[in-house]
Structure formats: structure tokens, C-alpha cells
Write a structure and sequence with these properties.
223 residues, mainly beta, Jelly Rolls, 7-stranded antiparallel β-sheet, 13% helix, 48% strand
Length: 223
């Protein structure tokens, strides 16, 4: 019974629109697809939000979400995410391929006993590898990471540190120019890194461990 209720609730989440605008183009409604962890669509002050609850049981891959994102390659993704050490992850349904441009999202950290994090994912592949740029309150900076074979590797840490307030909206921006990546929060905290290979894959949202984080106003400007 509970499993059936969970599937129906998740289906509802998948159908609810989350506001995403192609930067510089007209406003349009798209949806996020939960891939790992417990995500909920909602609204605040008339604006669509998407919130992850990291206090839920250990995150597991969502098979329906994987099918929506990767089609026939979904089993490959589910297998890659069925290992210890995965983290909450969601993708933008209507941006199946992103190689260069600007990604932006507003985030609000609500809670987290061990981690308080918000991240933007890019270069997400069906084999479960991806890159992400994140802010967390422990380090108080922006960093660029890689996730591969169930292992996270830090690629670059920003030098400036600031403890941002909880329950307040902040903006995380990731600029991709070929292999050059620049990530920033509130146009202040910043980090840059050059990847070993070109960017090609899906984009989305990421958090770590027990973070409870809300997102809104995601934009993707492909160049």
C-alpha cells in the first residue's frame, strides 16, 4: 500500500511544472525529473520550487525518472546509481544535451545536520558520471567536483569563503565555455577550472547527505 502511494506521489511530482526559462528567450514551463533521492515540487509566493529532503532514507535511483531521462539506457544509469555513496540528483527534462553556455539557479538551504549544500549538475551521462558545482556552508565556498564510479573527486576549490545565511535565496551560476568552467554564488564567491574533456550531457540539481534545499528559477542558456 505504502509503495503504491509513493509511486503515485512521485508521478505527481514528475507532472508538476517547475519554472525554467531559456536565458534571453521567452518564459516557458518545464519539469525536473527526480533521479536519486526524495524531491518535491511546490510553490512559494507564486513561484515554482523544487525541494530535496536529504533527511529521508538513503537515496536510491528512481527507475521511472531514469526512463524519462535516458530512455533505453535507463538500466545502465540505475545500475551505476545503485551503489553506496550516491547523492540526491535531479535533471531538467527538456534539456537533454548541454555542451556550452550558462546555467543558473536560485537556492535556499533550509536544514541539514551534517551537510548544508546546493549544487548544479552538468555533463551528466547515462553511465552515471557527471560534474557539478556546489556551495556548502561547511567550507563556505564554491567548488567544482566530478562523480564517477561511485566516487567523488574535487577538481577545484574557490579561495573566498563566506557563511551564507539559511532560509535565504542565493544564486548559483555555472558558465561553460568549451572545457573552461566558472562557477559563482551571488556574483561573489567564485571558482574556475579546466576539464580534461568536452562537456556533453544532461544538466540538473545536486545536494549532499542530509541537506534540505529548495531550488527555483533555473535557467539554461546554450551557446
Amino acid at each position: 500500500m505504502l509503495a503504491g502511494m509513493h509511486r503515485r506521489a512521485l508521478a505527481l511530482v514528475l507532472m508538476l511544472p517547475v519554472g525554467i526559462a531559456a536565458f534571453g528567450q521567452s518564459q516557458q514551463e518545464h519539469t525536473f525529473v527526480p533521479l536519486v533521492g526524495l524531491w518535491r515540487a511546490g510553490a512559494e509566493a507564486g513561484r515554482a520550487t523544487f525541494t530535496v529532503d536529504g533527511t529521508a532514507p538513503a537515496p536510491k535511483p528512481d527507475e521511472e525518472g531514469a526512463k524519462a531521462a535516458f530512455g533505453p539506457e535507463a538500466p545502465r544509469f540505475v545500475k551505476a546509481m545503485s551503489v553506496p555513496g550516491v547523492f540526491p540528483l535531479a535533471t531538467v527534462r527538456d534539456v537533454p544535451a548541454f555542451a556550452s553556455g550558462r546555467l543558473s539557479v536560485e537556492f535556499k538551504i533550509l536544514a541539514g545536520a551534517t551537510d548544508q549544500t546546493a549544487g548544479v549538475v552538468f555533463n551528466l551521462k547515462p553511465d552515471g558520471t557527471y560534474n557539478y558545482a556546489r556551495y556548502n556552508t561547511k567550507d563556505g565556498n564554491v567548488a567544482i567536483w566530478k562523480f564517477e564510479n561511485g566516487t567523488r573527486t574535487v577538481l577545484a576549490h574557490g579561495e573566498l569563503h563566506e557563511q551564507l545565511p539559511f532560509a535565504t535565496w542565493h544564486r548559483l551560476v555555472v558558465q561553460v565555455k568549451g572545457r573552461a568552467i566558472t562557477a559563482s554564488v551571488n556574483d561573489k564567491l567564485r571558482v574556475t577550472h579546466t576539464l580534461d574533456g568536452d562537456v556533453a550531457g544532461r544538466v540538473g540539481l545536486w545536494t549532499k547527505a542530509d541537506s534540505v534545499t529548495a531550488f527555483r528559477a533555473f535557467t539554461a542558456n546554450q551557446q
